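Handout, section B. The chain below has 122 residues.
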Amino acid sequence: MMTPMAPLELHLLATPKAAPELRHHLRAHGFDVRLCATELLTNVIDHLGEGTPVTVRVGGTAVGDRTRIEVTDPDPRALPVLLSAGETAESGRGLALVDALAERWGVEQGPDRKTVWCELRN
């Protein structure tokens, strides 16, 4: 039986150099967890701008067989949209990757923030 990992919470500024820092903090997790967390962080950079403050949380779920990744930012209006990127498109694949890898994903909106989350089977 695997021992569950302690939940992780990081407060970062969404910048390109934050992505490898985030992957480093998640090195005990599998590739899919690191990839999805990085894609959700990159979405904040791309859609809200570099330097946006974010909170990243990674931990288990109540069911116990999934890892939940959450990225919270201060803009409740800029909602993620699943796009179908063309073969030559240079962007638009991040959320498609999350959608393909995750068991489920979604958005929780608050009055002054939103959290984009996904859950991956362990």
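Note. The longest helix spans residues 31-48. Compare this with the example in section A.
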